[in-house]
Design brief:
The complex is a heterodimer of chains A (about 325) and B (about 280). With about 325 residues, chain A is an all-alpha fold. Chain A is about 80% helix and about 0% strand. The longest helix of chain A is centred in the middle third of the chain and has 39 residues, at about 180-220. Chain B is an all-alpha fold and about 280 residues long. Classes of the chains: A mainly alpha (about 325), B mainly alpha (about 280).
Chain lengths: ~325, ~280
């Protein structure tokens, strides 16, 4: 187990280097210079000032030098300063937004798995009945519905038409004056739609996966044995079979992280949630290179760590691997 | 070889998929969409970019089935022309992903050793990036054009195919017929192209069908955010962008293009899953 863990951790190094290299290449493939953007905003700036800006950002150095400088700064967690007018360190900007995106995604992930597991099990147990078919169709609708469209419709019905739920931001104006309880309720109300939208799309994949994992387990000999011993069907399914079918889901949870983080761009933009996705979208729109690079790298690192946690918990959960 | 595969299709694949009503429904819808988008110039009742100041945001009627948009353009015609864009993006992007993924997967699986290790590490690295972040970053830095969109969706979507093909190649290279081919002096290239590739294609077919659906979704999200297909060219995503602005007065502007995406992606997914079930030897009852 220790060797396995060490091996997995050693593998992180080349992967992280690869991530930084790809990020760097991607951003520098772009033809438009950030300096051009700043110049376009202010026509009075002359050629000389332009060169000074270029030098200031280190954009005049050869690419490999820029990469090494960036990498050594990255190792010290220095992601540079934003090109935007506030000129703040990128790390600070990300730090204040990351918790929002992370907690939103964790809530969505919990909701998603909490719903997908029973749905998948039911579909497997009642295989080929109308229930299974109904679930299949529902699940495929979830696959097919564009997140932003669903968000739009929900905003229209619950926000505009029925006026039940707020449609943007995280808090009501002046929420600071509320009591602790109503502040929490306020936040929950604001999060309901975004979380529902974020989890519905991936619900499909997970429940589908759960169904096939369950189908694979139900035919095993130990399930027949359990039934032969006279254990009730409920216990056989929800204890003996489910426990074994759940294992691969751990890996799936790890794999769904990049999708969730990537999806946050869309629903954070639509619901005006000040998270990392929104920051990324703004950064991309204003060609704020340091912000974009910072979020790309951090998003990839989060995925890497998520996968590591998933692999390690898999190994811990599966006695066959644990004992090796 | 070819006749064997044809008889397999006739004897096993076709009877199986024909029984799957959902898959057949998907196939029919896919086919209808293809025909409709090919014949768009003849089917569309109006010019999709024709502005009409007297018909702004008109609700659905007999002359405008899906209503009109904020510039008085016919939404039905725009959705119809949008299908051309979406399907084109879907096919080309997935074409790129399939070719790239197959090459990487075949080489990694066939040669094994350090080649395999290096290529699969590259796959791992690419998989770490939230794909939508990567796509968004690249497309915004380049100027928005449909060709870039297709290329970028393809270049960020090949890793799954590479893994599938590698797994197939790993088992196929141990087959007796590969050994036989090697004994009679076939080159590596010939073995890969003539013996391994054709037998590794079935999971690729499934991945491609599902991938078209994914690419269509990605393109519409990008266009919705304003960095995909640029107006006045209609695409399902960019019609929805204006739908969002007028959602309080013109529900039809949001409903129909969204439904178009939903139905298309739904159909491709049903078809893809149907093909998967039909190709899977374990589904024999």
């Amino acid at each position: 187990m220790t060797t396995y863990l060490l091996k997995r951790i050693a593998l992180l190094v080349p992967l992280m280097l690869g991530i930084t290299l790809i990020t760097f290449t991607v951003i520098h493939l772009a033809p438009g210079e950030p300096v051009d953007m700043q110049m376009a905003m202010n026509p009075k700036v002359g050629k000389e000032a332009r060169e000074r800006l270029t030098k200031f950002y280190g954009l005049d150095k050869p690419l490999h030098e820029q990469y090494v400088t960036w990498l050594s700064k990255l190792a010290r967690l220095d992601l540079g300063r934003s090109f935007s007018s506030d000129n703040r360190p990128v790390l600070d900007k990300i730090k204040e937004r990351l918790p929002i995106t992370l907690s939103l995604n964790i809530v969505a992930l919990v909701l998603e798995f909490g719903l997908a597991i029973p749905i998948g099990v039911m579909a497997a147990v009642y295989r080929d009945t109308w229930l299974d078919k109904g679930i299949t169709v529902f699940v495929f609708l979830g696959f097919a519905v564009p997140t932003f469209w669903l968000a739009l419709l929900l905003m229209y019905f619950f926000g505009v038409k029925l006026n039940w739920l707020p449609i943007s931001g995280l808090h009501t104006l002046g929420y600071e004056g509320y009591s602790w309880l109503s502040r929490t309720l306020d936040l929950a109300k604001h999060l309901l739609l975004p979380v529902a939208v974020a989890s519905f799309g991936s619900l499909a994949g997970v429940s589908r996966y759960m169904r096939s994992a369950m189908l694979g387990v139900i035919d095993q000999d130990y399930i027949t044995t359990a039934r032969a011993k006279g254990i009730s069907e409920r216990v056989v399914i929800w204890k003996h079979a489910l426990r074994n079918a759940l294992l691969p889901l751990i890996t799936l949870a790890g794999f769904s992280i990049p999708g969730l983080i990537g999806g946050s761009v869309i629903f954070e933009t639509i619901f005006a949630i000040p998270g990392m996705g929104q920051l990324f979208y703004q950064g991309v729109m204003s060609r704020d290179y340091p912000v974009v690079m910072g979020i790309l790298v951090i998003g990839a690192f989060l995925t890497l760590i998520g996968n590591l946690i998933a692999d390690v918990s898999y190994a811990l959960a599966d006695p066959r691997i644990r004992q090796q | 070889m070819m006749s064997l595969r044809t008889s397999y299709l006739a004897a096993v694949f076709w009877p199986r998929i024909r029984r799957n009503k959902l898959a057949i429904t998907g196939a029919v819808v896919v086919l209808m969409l293809l025909i409709a988008s090919l014949l768009a110039p003849w089917i569309a009742p109006h010019n999709p970019t024709q502005i009409n100041a007297w018909q702004v945001l008109a609700p659905p009627s007999t002359s405008h089935w899906f209503g009109t948009d904020e510039l008085g353009r016919d939404v039905f015609s725009r959705v119809l022309y949008g299908a051309r864009i979406s399907l084109k993006v879907g096919f080309v992007a997935i074409g790129i992903a399939i070719v790239l993924g197959s090459v990487v997967g075949l080489v990694a699986g066939y040669y094994g050793g350090w080649v395999d290790t290096v290529l699969m590490r590259c796959v791992d690295i690419m998989l770490c990036f939230p794909a939508f972040f990567l796509i968004l970053a690249i497309i915004t830095f380049l100027e928005p054009s449909i060709w870039y969109i297709m290329a970028v969706i393809g270049l960020t979507g090949w890793m799954g195919v590479a893994r599938l093909v590698r797994a197939e190649a790993l088992s196929i290279r141990e087959m007796d017929y590969v050994m036989a081919a090697r004994c009679i002096g076939c080159s590596n290239l010939r073995i890969i192209l003539r013996h391994i590739l054709p037998n590794a294609l079935s999971p690729v077919l499934v991945a491609a069908t599902l991938g078209v659906a994914g690419a269509i979704l990605t393109e519409s999200s990008l266009s919705f955010l304003g960095i995909g297909v640029q107006p006045p060219t209609p695409s399902w995503g960019n019609i929805l962008t204006s739908g969002k602005d007028y959602i309080e007065f013109a529900w039809w502007l949001s409903l129909f293009p969204g439904l178009a995406i939903l139905v298309t992606v739904f159909a491709y997914n049903l078809l893809g899953e149907g093909i998967r079930d039909a190709l899977d030897p374990r589904t024999d009852k």
